[in-house]
Write a structure and sequence with these properties.
- The protein is an alpha/beta fold.
- The chain has a single domain, classed as Formyl transferase, N-terminal domain (Rossmann fold).
- It has helices spanning 13-24, 27-30, 47-53, 69-82, 103-108, 129-135, 171-196; strands at residues 2-8, 33-40, 57-60, 91-94, 113-117, 140-147, 157-164.
- The chain has a seven-stranded mixed β-sheet.
- Helix 3 links the parallel strand 2 and strand 3 (57-60).
- Helix 1 (13-24) packs across helix 7 (171-196).
- The radius of gyration is 16 Å and the shape is globular.
- The relative contact order is 0.17.
- The model has no long low-confidence stretch (mean pLDDT 95).
- 5-O-phosphono-beta-D-ribofuranosylamine is lined by residues 8, 10-14, 95-96, 116-118, 143, 179, 182.
């Protein structure tokens, strides 16, 4: 079985979309894959509740308990690897995981570490993407699923979705429109990648 480990920090709606799609599309039977664990760096991440309700193993690793980014990432890798069969092409899926990962962590999972970013990369890496899109007068915005490389919000693009920026849009309105699309493209990109492996 190919284990998928999902990392979250908050609401976890993308994680929930992946879990629901995996159930609906019977990934275990059809792709030999399952969501094996959900790991959060925040104990109060709402997504943990959903994951537990689904019977998925959950773990919390509080980054504030570590003296350095390197020490946190080393502990995180140990945790991830507990759900990871090294001989299998398991995926590590960042879904609203609000931590910048060290080059060492990224290299360890090269080719099987994915992220979703709420902009049409390479436009607007980093935070406040929707505010930037509105301020720039963009007519469209969107989301990008990409392979993670050492450079923040870069890496080979696997999928994108485009939504209109409408007159009078607030950040919240635009973010909600983008998020709806994220829930479609992220599970699809993961399934496509699993099919190839
Ligand atoms: C999403 O907009 C995602 O693109 C970004 O963080 C947000 C996470 O939302 N990286 P959720 O926790 O999946 O609901």
């Amino acid at each position: 079985m190919k284990n998928i480990v999902i990392l979250i920090s908050g609401g976890g709606s993308n994680m929930a979309a992946i879990v629901k799609t995996a159930q609906r599309e019977a990934w275990a039977d059809k792709l030999g894959a399952r969501v094996a664990a959900v790991i959060s760096n925040k104990a109060n991440a709402a997504g943990l509740v959903f994951a537990r309700e689904q019977g998925i193993a959950t773990e919390v690793l509080d980054h504030k308990a570590f003296a350095s980014r390197e020490a946190f990432d080393a502990a995180l890798a140990l945790l991830v690897d507990r759900f990871d069969a090294p001989e299998q092409p398991a995926l590590v899926v960042l879904a609203g995981f609000m931590r910048i990962l060290t080059p060492g962590f990224v290299a360890r999972y090269a080719g099987r570490l994915l992220n979703i970013h709420p902009s049409l990369l390479p436009a607007f890496p980093g935070l406040h993407t929707q505010q930037q899109a509105i301020d720039a007068g963009c007519k469209v915005a969107g989301a990008t699923v990409h392979q993670v490389t050492a450079e923040l919000d870069h890496g080979p693009i696997l999928a994108q979705a485009v939504v209109p920026v409408l007159p009078g849009d607030t950040v919240e309105m635009l973010a909600a429109r983008v998020l709806t699309q994220e829930h479609i493209i992220y599970p699809r990109a993961i399934a496509e990648l699993l099919q190839k492996k």
